[in-house]
Amino acid sequence: MEWIDTDAAGIYHNTAVVRYVEAAEATLMRERGLDGYFSSAPRVRYEVDFESPLRFGQEATTVVEIVRIGTASMTFAFELWGEPFAGRPRTRAAHGRFVTVHIDPQTGKSAPWPQQWLTALGVS
Questions:
Q1: How far apart are the C-alpha atoms of 27 and 3, rounded to whole Å?
Q2: Where are the domains of the chain?
Q3: What b/e readout covers 25-60, taking b as 16+ CB neighbours within 10 angstroms?
Q4: With contact defined as beta carbons under 8 Å apart, do 124 and 58 qualify?
Q5: Which fold does the domain 3-115 belong to in CATH?
Q6: What is the pLDDT of residues 49-106, one digit of tens each?
């Protein structure tokens, strides 16, 4: 956690979770060659449960996985873990889910995922 990620008490700010999850999601999509994903897949739902604080200077690990791919939507689950710090063990700090929807750039409306994206994501 950097200072920008924390409040005045040095405890992580709720908005830091969103940034860490987005960074992990971007890595996931880049690894599959889906560079155009973010401009075509806005979030339509986001939920998070906060479980324990993270502190300034503490390392954190974010895990994001796809749990469902629908015709035009995709559901992800995520966890944010605080690594051992100041005598405390590794602890899950937050977890949640979010949903994105594919938007056709021509119409601006929801549309099925492109087949090449489904193939890149391992869906036949």
A1: 23
A2: 3-115
A3: beebbeeeebeebeebbeeeeeebeeeebbbbebeb
A4: no
A5: Thiol Ester Dehydrase; Chain A (3.10.129)
A6: 999 999 999 999 999 999 999 999 999 999 999 999 999 999 999 999 999 999 998 9
